[in-house]
Specification:
By secondary structure, this protein is α/β, with parallel strands linked by helices. It is built from nine helices and four strands, in the order E-H-E-H-E-H-H-H-H-H-H-H-E. Helix 4 runs antiparallel to helix 5 and helix 4 runs antiparallel to helix 7.
């Protein structure tokens, strides 16, 4: 059965591809390229399905200043990358002295710093999968940081360590979770006059 589908993506190539594929399946497709247009189309058209890019800046800035901002996440990822780079550089003298454990720590820290920096750039330019990779990395960092703080395994427990090990990952997860953007679009879909008869639209994140 044909459905009314709203595609929301600020990448015109992605939106055009989705529109072409869905039209070929017999569905009625409307495309919105930014947050305000998506909210207006959702209220006016009452689509059956919304395919939503959760990192639309217009939705984030107007509806939830703390959600899904790639620019803010990019800055925090650079800070995180710099902290790991400093940790790797600090371990180099010990590695040169022959401590293999410190050599491994230096190598892993520098590689992690480099990867985090590249993820920040990819997130800033909205590369596919970048957001998921950043979320996975930050969950790993947050869980690892909590374990290090709970278990008596040594290491620093000062304010700087707390902010680096727990504060940064937690803030990045909050910035990128995207739930509020999805909720805004769902709320717009649910406010039409015929919602009692048809029910709310489904929302697919991308």
């Amino acid at each position: 059965m044909p459905a009314r589908i709203l595609v929301v993506d600020d990448d015109s190539r992605v939106a055009a591809t989705l529109e072409r594929v869905l039209n070929a399946e017999g569905h009625v497709v409307e495309v919105a390229v930014d947050g305000p247009a998506a909210l207006a189309a959702a209220r006016a058209r009452q689509p059956d399905l919304v395919v939503l890019d959760v990192m639309l800046p217009e939705v984030d800035s107007q509806r939830n200043p703390g959600s899904g901002r790639p620019e803010a996440a990019f800055v925090l990822l650079l800070i995180q990358s710099a902290s790991w780079l400093l940790a790797g550089i600090s371990a180099i003298p010990f590695a040169v002295a022959g401590e293999r454990g410190m050599a491994l720590l230096a190598l892993l820290s520098i590689l992690l710093a480099s990867g985090t920096g590249w993820l920040g750039v990819a997130l800033l330019y909205r590369a596919r999968r970048a957001r998921r990779l950043v979320l996975a990395l930050q969950w790993t960092c947050l869980v690892g940081g909590l374990i290090l703080w709970i278990l008596p395994v040594g290491g620093s427990h000062g304010l700087v360590a707390f902010l680096t090990d727990l504060g940064l990952p937690a803030l990045l997860l909050w910035l990128l979770h995207g739930r509020r953007a999805r909720a805004d679009c769902r709320a717009a879909v649910d406010t039409g006059p015929d919602v009692q008869e048809r029910g709310p639209a489904a929302v697919i994140q991308q």
